[in-house]
Design brief:
Layout (H helix, E strand, L loop, with lengths): L6 H19 L8 H11 L6 H12 L8 H18 L9 E2 L2 E2 L1 H5 L1 H19 L6 H11 L4 H9 L8 H26 L4 H25 L14 H18 L8 H14 L1
Antiparallel strand pairs: 1-2
């Protein structure tokens, strides 16, 4: 590892790389229908951590691969994430008025346009993977990750969450499907794009799953909203911290087959561990 390497520099470089790609991939705001395309760009090119693409680029680094080769997977994961946020913010869902310090899409452009923005971003995510040289498994796995058995199903159960009537297993299942599954895809997809071995694919998939669940547990700790499906409904704070630590330990252990090169992924896990102290 270079003495000059830093996680912040890696995250910045990752964000800039995927944003340049998405800026070119999305229709220009001047292309009809103008209101839809402007709103799509507003939803996607609004900053954010870009952690899912960072995880994909980290997977490429762990395999000694070129991060440019995994850009379609990184972009697809980010587009699915962006679509899910637009729909989650809708009045029929979480009814949020702001995101990242700006009006949410439905507040600025109207509810109907926001629904269409989400639809279009999800379609665009699959378009990024529909290239002649792409592995078909990338598309099939993304469909599973974004569908009723994972992200959408997790959101459905989140909306149906009732405090006092849900178990630890149920909340963890929601977190796994709604949050961790897309991180899992980001790691696995990066490996599959580079033709990794089955062992390497599994390692990076497992890292993404454990990292994603730890990320959501820490998000619960940092934003203990009693209206939300939070792990703090069923566990004390110290128990949540212990569980998050265990998930991060499992994530780091999963990197054993590519540990020498997995500097960025270890850095991502280390950053979450730092939040626990």
């Amino acid at each position: 590892m270079s003495a000059s390497w830093s996680l912040d520099a890696f995250l910045l470089e990752s964000a800039e790389r995927v944003e340049r790609y998405l800026d070119k991939a999305l229709p220009p705001a001047s292309e009809p229908p103008v209101s839809l395309h402007e709103a799509m760009r507003y939803a996607v090119l609004s900053g954010g951590k870009r952690l899912r693409p960072a995880l994909t680029f980290g997977a490429a680094e762990a395999l000694g691969g070129d991060p440019e080769r995994v850009l379609p997977v990184a972009a697809a994961a980010e587009l699915v994430h962006a679509y899910s946020l637009v729909h989650d913010d809708l009045p029929a869902m979480d009814d949020d008025q702001e995101r990242r310090g700006r009006p949410t899409v439905h507040v600025r452009y109207g509810e109907a346009t926001a629904i269409l923005v989400g639809d279009a971003l999800l379609a665009e995510a699959f378009a990024q993977l529909a290239t002649p040289d792409a592995a078909p498994e990338l598309i099939a796995r993304l469909a599973q990750t974004a569908g009723s058995r994972a992200l959408v199903g997790g959101q459905a159960d989140d909306l149906a969450f009732a405090a006092g009537r849900d178990s630890l297993e149920r909340i963890l299942s929601i977190h796994q499907r709604k949050t961790a599954a897309l991180f899992q895809y980001a790691g696995w997809g990066g490996a599959r794009s580079l033709g990794a071995t089955a062992v390497q694919e599994q390692a990076l998939e497992h890292f993404g799953r454990h990292y994603g669940l730890a990320y959501q547990l820490l998000d619960d700790l940092r934003d203990a909203d009693p209206k939300e499906c939070s792990i703090l409904r069923v566990l004390a704070e110290h128990e949540v911290r212990a569980r998050a630590e265990a998930e991060l330990a499992a994530a780091l252990e999963a990197l054993a087959p590519c540990a020498e090169r997995a500097v960025a992924l270890r850095g991502l896990a280390g950053r979450l561990l730092g939040w626990l102290t």
